[in-house]
Amino acid sequence: QKEVEQDPGPLSVPEGAIVSLNCTYSNSAFQYFMWYRQYSRKGPELLMYTYSSGNKEDGRFTAQVDKSSKYISLFIRDSQPSDSATYLCAMSVTNTGNQFYFGTGTSLTVIP
Amino acid sequence: DSGVTQTPKHLITATGQRVTLRCSPRSGDLSVYWYQQSLDQGLQFLIQYYNGEERAKGNILERFSAQQFPDLHSELNLSSLELGDSALYFCASSVDPSGFNEKLFFGSGTQLSVL
């Protein structure tokens, strides 16, 4: 069983839709949860960072962590064509980069 | 632009060959990470260097090696290449490897194709 599971999609939504991206994990010791966005032919860039459980909001993006269910989500409101990218979740016990576990990514296309 | 530079962008080579991938971290970042990204495995941590010294090893094969030079740039050497080594290789850098709120900045990657 992989440490982190992520549905690869692809996911295609119309502009303005609410997008929900999800990851599940098996290691209950994970405390740091991240979402990275990766545009085609680019490296991942950090989008959201959350410690422990709860929600975090940043503009149109909301990250949610449910440690009891070992489930994390990223919501994108009012999705834009510029949000078209692959979204990777990542998580860690100690928040050091050599111990990040990444999901395989979900490909999202927002159609104008 | 993350400030992390990787060269070359694309590399096509044959099985059994050896290649070198290069990474220049962001100005001021002392820590360099190498990751391999494939469709089925996602991003896999290979190795980390901090200020010239190896800090941590992940799923790096014995055929692969890396080093970080005094000017902080890093090279990843892949030898005796196999078809399965075809992947996107990323370098990332960070300024604070202490474990507190570490943020990684990724380069654009090197796409390696082994034919």
> How many strands of chain A?
11
Biggest sheet features of chain B: 7 strands, mixed
How much is the radius of gyration of chain A in Å? Answer: 13 Å
What is the SS-derived class of chain B?
A: mainly beta
Radius of gyration of chain B: 13 Å
Per DSSP, what share of the residues of chain A sits in E-state strands of 2 or more residues?
over 45%
3D architecture notes:
- The complex is a heterodimer of chains A (112) and B (115).
- By secondary structure, chain A is mainly beta.
- Helix content of chain A is 0%, strand content 54%.
- Chain A has no helices and eleven strands.
- In chain A, the strands form two sheets. In chain A, strands 2, 4, 5, 9, 10 and 11 form a six-stranded mixed sheet that branches. Chain A has a five-stranded antiparallel sheet with strand order 1-3-8-7-6, with no helix packed on it.
- Chain A is globular, with a radius of gyration of 13 Å.
- Chain A starts with a strand and ends with a strand.
- Chain B has 115 residues and is an all-beta fold.
- Helices cover 0% and strands 52% of the residues of chain B.
- Chain B has strands at 5-7, 10-13, 19-24, 31-38, 42-50, 53-57, 64-68, 74-78, 87-94, 105-106, 110-114.
- In chain B, the strands form two sheets. In chain B, strands 2, 4, 5, 6, 9, 10 and 11 form a seven-stranded mixed sheet that branches. In chain B, strands 1-3-8-7 form a four-stranded antiparallel sheet, with no helix packed on it.
- Chain B is globular, with a radius of gyration of 13 Å.
- The mean pLDDT of chain B is 92.
- Chains A and B meet through strand 5 of A and strand 5, strand 9 and strand 10 of B.
Keywords:
heterodimer, A: 112 residues, mainly beta, 6-stranded mixed beta sheet, 5-stranded antiparallel beta sheet, 11 strands, 54% strand, globular, B: 115 residues, 7-stranded mixed beta sheet, 4-stranded antiparallel beta sheet, 0% helix
Layout of strands and helices, then pairs:
The complex is a heterodimer of chains A (112) and B (115).
Chain A: E1 4-6, E2 11-14, E3 19-25, E4 32-38, E5 45-51, E6 54-58, E7 61-66, E8 71-76, E9 85-92, E10 101-102, E11 106-111
Parallel strand pairs in A: 2-11
Antiparallel strand pairs in A: 1-3, 3-8, 4-5, 4-9, 6-7, 7-8, 9-10, 9-11
Chain B: E1 5-7, E2 10-13, E3 19-24, E4 31-38, E5 42-50, E6 53-57, E7 64-68, E8 74-78, E9 87-94, E10 105-106, E11 110-114
Parallel strand pairs in B: 2-11
Antiparallel strand pairs in B: 1-3, 3-8, 4-5, 4-9, 5-6, 7-8, 9-10, 9-11
